[in-house]
Amino acid sequence: MLSPIEKPVSHGYPGGRGWCEFDFFDQNYKYVNGIRVNIQDHADTNVCNWIEGVSAATYKGQPALLTTVQYHRGIDPAKTVDEIGNSYHRFTALLILTPHQDGSLSIRQDDSCLGPGNQIGELAIARKRIAECSQ
User: In terms of domain of life, where is this protein from (predicted)?
Assistant: First the structure.
């Protein structure tokens, strides 16, 4: 039985999520920190497919990463073979990195420049926009 606060999903990934996991490890492959890149597009049914690209960046003097993720809006079963892989969407997030003296790392997603629901699928376009916002 569903609790009153749970919203049933009539299609898509049961309990679908609006984010992709992004984890960080040190040079010894020890987990340091992670972040859920929030896509903010049909958030109750998004399914992350993969992280398509990552690029180092600087944003307002801070180290950052640009990351493009590929996702599906819901994941209703394909009716034909041709439908498989034809409904991908892309989103690029700016992740601000704050390294600390003790070796830990703080990570936050900043959508103020690229927009929370952007459909930017190329890192070069995102990098240009970041440069414009940093001025």
Answer: Bacteria
115: left (phi over 0), alpha (psi -120 to 50) or beta: left
Residue 14 included in any domain: no
Given this model, what pLDDT does residue 89 score?
Answer: 86
Rounded Cα gap, residues 92 and 114, in angstroms = 8
| C-alpha count within 13 angstroms, C-beta hemisphere, residue 13 | 18
Number of separate domains in the chain: 1
105-109, strands of its sheet edge to edge: 46-59, 62-73, 88-99, 105-109
28 falls within a domain: yes
Domain extent at residue 43:
19-134
Instruction: To the nearest 10°, report the CA torsion of 42, 44, 45, 47.
Output: 100
Q: Is residue 2 part of a domain?
A: no
Q: Give a yes or no: residue 124 inside a domain.
A: yes
Give 23-59 pLDDT, tens digit per residue. Answer: 888 889 999 899 988 887 765 667 787 889 999 999 9
